[in-house]
C-alpha cells in the first residue's frame, strides 16, 4: 500500500508557498522531471523515450552519480535537457544538520559543471532554515504529481493510471531514473508520453531562474 500523495495538495502549497509546485501555462504543457540519476542504461532509456516526442525535461542529478557516470551525464546535457541539483549524496534534510546539508548541495553543484538555479530536496524533505539559505540562489522545485515509480508495492499499471489521472496543464511531474524505480518507470513513462502527446500536450523543462 502506497503511503504518499500522488497529487500535492493545497495544504502543502500553503505551508511552503515559496517553493515551486506547478507552473501556470496557457498552453497544454507538462513539466517532466527525473530524480536520482544519471544511471547507465536507465537514464539512456529515458533519453530515448523523450526523443521520440521531442520532449524536454529536467534532470535533478545526484552529484556522486554524476561523478561515477559522467559520460551518461553529458548525454543528458547534449540532448538539451535542463539540469537541477539533488545534493551530492541524496541527503534527507530533516535528518541532516544545516551546515552539512548546504555543503553537500555546494559539492553537488561543483560536480554538475554547469550553472543551474534549480534545486530539489531528496524525498521532498528540507528544513525551513536550509530552504531559506538556498532560496538566495535556487528555485526549490517540488512537484504537482508524484508518479510513485519508486514504490515497489505499486503495480506499474497503477503508477501509470494515477500519473495520468492527476496530471494537468502546468503540472510538474516526478519520475526517477534510478534502479529502484526502473520496473515501474519503464512501463509508465512511454505510455504516459504517448497518452498526452496524442492529446496535443508538449513536454518542457522547468525554466531556469524561476522563483516562486
Q: How many helices in DSSP terms?
A: 8
Number of strands: 8
Q: Indicate the structural class.
A: alpha/beta
Pattern of helices and strands: HEHEHHEHEHEEHEHE
Name the beta content range: 5-15%
Q: Return Rg in Å.
A: 16 Å
Largest sheet: 6 strands, parallel
Which bin fits the share of residues in helices? 25-40%
Could you tell me the mean pLDDT?
95
Question: End-to-end distance, in Å?
Answer: 33 Å
Summarize the structure.
By secondary structure, the protein is an alpha/beta fold. 39% of the residues lie in helices and 14% in strands. It is built from 8 helices and 8 strands, in the order H-E-H-E-H-H-E-H-E-H-E-E-H-E-H-E.
Can you characterise this structure?
- The protein has helices spanning 10-15, 42-52, 63-68, 70-78, 98-112, 128-134, 156-166, 182-198, and strands at 29-35, 58-61, 82-85, 118-119, 139-140, 145-146, 172-176, 202-204.
- Strands 1, 2, 3, 6, 7 and 8 form a 6-stranded parallel sheet that branches.
- By secondary structure, the protein is α/β, with parallel strands linked by helices.
- Helix 2 links the parallel strand 1 and strand 2 (58-61).
- It contains 8 helices and 8 strands, in the order αβαβααβαβαββαβαβ.
Amino acid at each position: 500500500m502506497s503511503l504518499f500523495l500522488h497529487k500535492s495538495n493545497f495544504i502543502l502549497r500553503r505551508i511552503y508557498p515559496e517553493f515551486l509546485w506547478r507552473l501556470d501555462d496557457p498552453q497544454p504543457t507538462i513539466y517532466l522531471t527525473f530524480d536520482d540519476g544519471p544511471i547507465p542504461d536507465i537514464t539512456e532509456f529515458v533519453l530515448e523515450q523523450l526523443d521520440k516526442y521531442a520532449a524536454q525535461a529536467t534532470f535533478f542529478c545526484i552529484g556522486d552519480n554524476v561523478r561515477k557516470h559522467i559520460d551518461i551525464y553529458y548525454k543528458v546535457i547534449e540532448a538539451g535537457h535542463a539540469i537541477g541539483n539533488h545534493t551530492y549524496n541524496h541527503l534527507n534534510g530533516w535528518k541532516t544538520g544545516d551546515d552539512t546539508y548546504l555543503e553537500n548541495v555546494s559539492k553537488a553543484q561543483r560536480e554538475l559543471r554547469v550553472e543551474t538555479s534549480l534545486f530539489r530536496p531528496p524525498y521532498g524533505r528540507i528544513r525551513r532554515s536550509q530552504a531559506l539559505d538556498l532560496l538566495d540562489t535556487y528555485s526549490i522545485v517540488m512537484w504537482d504529481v508524484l508518479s510513485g515509480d519508486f514504490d515497489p508495492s505499486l503495480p506499474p499499471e497503477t503508477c501509470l493510471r494515477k500519473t495520468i489521472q492527476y496530471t494537468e496543464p502546468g503540472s510538474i511531474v516526478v519520475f526517477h531514473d534510478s534502479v529502484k524505480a526502473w520496473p515501474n518507470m519503464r512501463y509508465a513513462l512511454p505510455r504516459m508520453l504517448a497518452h498526452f502527446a496524442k492529446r496535443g500536450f508538449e513536454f518542457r523543462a522547468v525554466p531556469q531562474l524561476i522563483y516562486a
